[in-house]
UniProtKB/TrEMBL annotation:
GO CC annotation terms, alphabetical: membrane
Keywords associated with the record: ATP-binding, Kinase, Membrane, Nucleotide-binding, Phosphoprotein, Transferase, Transmembrane, Transmembrane helix, Two-component regulatory system
Domain Signal transduction histidine kinase subgroup 3 dimerisation and phosphoacceptor: 174-233
A matching Pfam family: HisKA_3
Top-level taxonomic group: Bacteria
TM stretches of this protein: 6-24, 31-49, 55-84, 96-114, 120-139
CDD domains: HATPase_UhpB-NarQ-NarX-like
The protein's name: histidine kinase
Signal peptide as annotated in the record: none
EC number of the protein: 2.7.13.3
Keyword Membrane found: yes
SUPFAM superfamilies tied to this protein: ATPase domain of HSP90 chaperone/DNA topoisomerase II/histidine kinase
Reactions listed under catalytic activity: ATP + protein L-histidine = ADP + protein N-phospho-L-histidine
Length: 364
């Protein structure tokens, strides 16, 4: 937001200086206003053009040079021209920026030969262009390194998640093996002991065997319970989702603020709903890592008036770009709809917000 205001303040200040100078000369103030209006219009629609931005910048350059034909002093248009040369280094791809500088140089040389532009003005433009070319090269190299870093970071996270999943699979196999061994050995022996104690009690009527039977039965029940626990997964429901999100937080270096309403952790949700909730929150956090202006993310889990489980994910987004529903957002929406829920995605001036809800287990 600060960068956006700074850019707008600079261009408006330069336009004001240009108009004030025109007012105190014999030049046409109407023509100056027209030129400023066209340039501002192109300036504010340029972010929407994407691949056609270079055409917008070339048009602005031509308009500024054409100001000489309406008796305007082109030297006072040079600061505006310098502004767009510098900004182009940040917004245009290298090949398009080189093309823009080439056109600017050719037009400038023609104006110098026709004596419509002083030689020192052209030298200033050349010096500024060379500096901007160096800056453009640096920005391009930094951007490529940043993209490479994000790709490597994404691969690292994918490998780490795969490692965690494999580790969970190994632990599950170990638990299953231990449960099978306990069931086959200890459980069988306790069952045999219980049956023998029962037979001796019936045959001989020893009262002391009642204590042995109770102890054996208790041990058998505890063994069966331990086997069931070992065969089950580590966690279910929203608690397991929170555990996975906390693990993702450590991997991604995000700062997640959880707000959990009273009673939410005990709400019943199916295994499929747990997976969908985790995947949706994971996609929200991935988007925050890629596009957010901050490392802070707010996640709110609650229950709405329809007794549905609701969630909200908010992160800062100062970039004034239109909301585009890409593959990730569409995939989130489809996942929520599969479990009977709905997803709402919207953007304000300062935040990107994802709201969603789905019915509890048994109410789909």
């Amino acid at each position: 937001m600060n960068y956006f205001l700074f850019r707008n303040s600079c261009i408006l200040l330069l336009m004001t200086i240009f108009l004030v100078h025109t007012y105190y000369t014999d030049a046409s103030l109407t023509a100056a206003f027209f030129i400023c209006t066209v340039i501002l219009t192109l300036y504010f629609i340029t972010p929407l053009l994407k691949k056609l931005r270079v055409i917008s910048y070339i048009t602005i350059v031509l308009i500024l040079f054409c100001s000489v034909f309406v008796s305007l002093n082109i030297m006072y248009a040079l600061p505006i021209l310098a502004f767009f040369i510098i900004e182009g280094a940040f917004l245009l791809q290298a090949k398009f920026y080189y093309f823009l500088i080439g056109i600017l140089t050719v037009i400038g040389m023609i104006f110098v030969l026709l004596r419509w532009l002083p030689l020192y003005g052209m030298l200033m433009l050349i010096a500024l262009s060379l500096c901007s070319l160096g800056m453009s090269h640096y920005i391009q190299a930094y951007s490529e390194k940043s993209i490479l870093y994000q790709e490597l970071l994404g691969q690292y996270r994918a490998l780490k998640r795969l490692s965690v999943e494999q580790d969970q699979l190994v632990r599950a196999e170990e638990r299953t093996k231990i449960a099978r061994d306990i069931h086959d050995s200890v459980g069988h022996n306790l069952t045999a002991l219980l049956m023998q104690a029962e037979m001796i009690s019936i045959e001989y009527g020893y009262d002391a065997l009642d204590d042995i039977k109770q102890l054996a039965r208790k041990s058998l029940n505890e063994t069966r319970y331990a086997v069931r626990q070992l065969k089950s997964s580590e966690a279910y429901g929203i608690t397991s989702v929170l555990h996975l999100i906390r693990r993702l937080e450590m991997e991604s270096r995000l700062h997640i603020r959880f707000t959990i309403e009273k009673g939410v952790l005990s709400l019943p949700i199916s295994n499929k709903q747990s997976i969908v909730l985790y995947r949706v929150l994971q996609e929200c956090l991935t988007n925050a890592m890629k596009y957010s202006d901050s490392k802070e993310v707010d996640i709110i889990l609650g229950k709405d008036s329809l007794q549905h489980i609701s969630f909200q994910v908010k992160n800062k987004s100062m970039k004034q770009t239109p909301l585009v529903h890409g593959f990730g957002l569409k995939n989130m929406t489809e996942r929520i709809q599969e479990i009977g829920g709905e997803l709402r995605i919207h953007k304000t001036e300062q935040q990107f917000i994802v709201d969603g809800s789905f019915p509890m287990k048994g109410r789909v």
